[in-house]
Amino acid sequence: MLKIEGLRAGYKGTEALHGISLEIRQGTIVAAVGANGAGKSTLINALSRLVDVNAGAITFDGQNIVKMSAPEVVELGIVQVPEGRQLFSALTVTENLRLGFHRLRRRRASSLFRERLDYVYELFPKLKERADQRAVTLSGGEQSMVAIGRALMADPKLLLLDEPSLGLAPIVVERMFNVLQVLRRSGLTILLVEQHADEALALSDYGYVLSVGNIAAEGTGESLRNHESIRQAYLG
């Protein structure tokens, strides 16, 4: 589904990824893990076309998307859940979710909106209870549900998750990761960027360990978790 070859990318002339290559197969969860400054968020933002790509190719469903804009890659089905959730705090849960529907607005709008909304509420029943509450009044875990739900409203082909567990209690993280397993079983492809490497790799089919803008190791999630030298050097 997605293939990256020799990707160099960064911010305002500062390169954060130094020629990395990786692949994401359809229907899998792939984890990109590593310490702060490893280049994980730059990878997500390069795929979303939010940072400069200096060299290399990003091929999604046979198309090189390097020269595309952020709205164009969303139209292709690449949808990001950004770090920190970035909700519209003054809007209600339903209003925030409606913003995610923008990609599908031209297709059977009213019936499809209700279909996607029901799907999100089935995954996150708590959000249905909070439908008319403003996002600012929600707990951190509920805000994370809204952020993921907003992305799912767009019916993505590839879901990009940037540090979804940030600031959440362990029990909330566990529930969120259970939802990601449900999404994988439904056939959704997911790139999961996480500092909590052990949990992310346990969930993932395949993983990449990033270190200062390079890929230091790769393999199945289980093999990376169980590789003692990799754990000591990169995973903590």
What does this structure look like?
There is one protein chain. With about 240 residues, the protein is of the alpha/beta class. It has two domains: about 160 residues, P-loop containing nucleotide triphosphate hydrolases (Rossmann fold, 3-Layer(aba) Sandwich), CATH 3.40.50.300; about 70 residues, no CATH class. Helix content is about 40%, strand content about 30%. It has ten helices and ten strands. The longest helix has 16 residues. The protein is globular and about 50 Å long.
The secondary-structure element order is EEEHEEHEHHHHEHEHEEHH
Shape: globular
Measured by DSSP, the beta-strand proportion falls in: 25-35%
**Structural domain count:** 2
Q: What class would the helix/strand composition place it in?
A: alpha/beta
CATH topology of the largest domain: Rossmann fold
Mean pLDDT, as a whole number?
A: 91
Radius of gyration: 17 Å
Low-pLDDT sequence parts: none
- Total strands: the figure is 10
Q: What is the CATH class of the largest domain?
A: Alpha Beta
| CATH H-level homologous superfamily name of the largest domain | P-loop containing nucleotide triphosphate hydrolases
The helix tally amounts to 10
Largest sheet: 6 strands, mixed
Side-by-side strand order of the widest sheet? 6-7-8-3-9-10
Q: Please name the CATH architecture of the largest domain.
A: 3-Layer(aba) Sandwich
Helix content: 25-40%
Terminal-residue CA separation: 31 Å
